[in-house]
Amino acid sequence: MKLITAILKPFKLDEVKEALQAAGINGMTVSEASGFGRQRGHTEVYRGAEYTVDLVPKIRLEVLVDDKDAASAVDVIVKTASTGSIGDGKVWTTPVEQVVRVRTGERGPDAI
Amino acid sequence: MDQVVLNGGDTAWMLASTALVLLMTPGLAFFYGGMVRTKSVLNMMMMSMVTIGIVSVLWVIYGFELAFGHSADSPWYGGIGLSGLGSQVDELTNNGGVYPIPVLVFAAFQLMFAIITPALISGAIADRAKFTSWAVFVAIWSTVVYFPVAHWVFAFGNKVGDVVTSTGYLAGKGVQDFAGGTAVHINAGAAGLALAIVLGKRIGWRKESMRPHSLPLVMLGAALLWFGWFGFNAGSSLAANGIAGLAFMNTQVATAGAVLGWLLVEKIRNGHATSLGAASGVVAGLVAITPACAFVAPWAAVVIGFIAGILCSLAVSIKYKLGFDDSLDVVGVHLVGGIWGSLAIGFFGTSVVNSVGLDGILYGGGTALLMKQLLGVGVVFAYSFIATLIIGYAIEKTIGFRVTREVEIEGIDLKEHAESAYELASSSRGGASL
Question: What does the record list as coiled-coil region(s) (chain B) (predicted)?
Fold first, then answer.
């Protein structure tokens, strides 16, 4: 099993969510995040005082998938989230040792 | 002497104006509260609220007598005595002549000015003043600075027959300040500068972000101030008459001009017209037209406001060059706007719009009026700045004025008031038990 973590531009969330559902992936966890990569931050001006704001608002999307679905799910996310401009985000996968569904106690791929 | 009888229309307008001016102080609390960080918004608003409490009580006990009493016959103060105001219920207002409104209505109207002036100062020391020390400061400052200065500027004396006694120093010199450019705004601005120096910079000033936490609150505050200011300026006519109408119109158009002036500077300098700029422009325009609103024509009010917007938007950056943390720009807006508006009368003042007005430079009156205005600006600035430095350092050396480093970093709301303004996520607070 794999955990896919994707850092996305907030306005891309709905599109990515729908694309993943269309690809047969049901279930995800979404949280608001902030950070920066090569894009760096942005500038805000208050009464003439310029503030450089390092951290940019992002969405963190997490999906648990079976090993065989991992590559295609990553492809769907990357294809949908891409705008071609700097700051589109990143996607990475990490191996997952165990998954348990809380309600039934099912374990492993059955719990996904 | 003709018997003056109470006028219902004038009295009704003054009662409404008085309520309008009171609303400015909660409006100011929103204006300032939105500009600070989430950890100090309640303290910022509480500084205004406690000022309403303290000054109102002092006013009834001795404040009105000190500012507007006639017993001392002094240009420097009205009188010293525990008035309680109970004996004056049936009297009409006598301020350089008898007005057909009850003296208690006049006293209530002037009370609202006495409240907002110290409240304005609080913006200079955001995030870092001990609450009890602020309360002590408000009581002392009102007594030593505002009440006497109000007498200098606003007390036109007790007129009996042709004899006028107890006229305030600056009023007697012919300084024109219709609604408080000197007594309110220069006074508060100079005091704000002094307190910013006494308390010092906030931890992290110019290093970490101190962005306004809620610009919609700032906009709400600016809107309430604008609305209330019609009572402040048009009410200062003490009558529902043509001068009130002139002051009302000038208040509107000067403020509009200042919004445009401030936004224009921002657009040229930074490339963006900001909401904080618009809200700040509102206040800058209101401040600048305050002394001048009954002495200039509406076209001149637009010019005064527009220039105020430009001047103040540039002035708010001075603190970074000079290195004093006037946190919410009491100096840049109220001191600079107050000085500009007071001096502008020397240029734009005209007896055409007001029979008791004088002609300024543009109306062939020469520099005589401007010199009077300079006197008013200089006297009030010098007295307020020096007296506030002394009061501020006295409080700092005795009970302490500034909170500890720990309180300032963790947040003055939680430490001074045991409250936090916002519960943004219920999971972030854990359980609570009574």
Answer: none
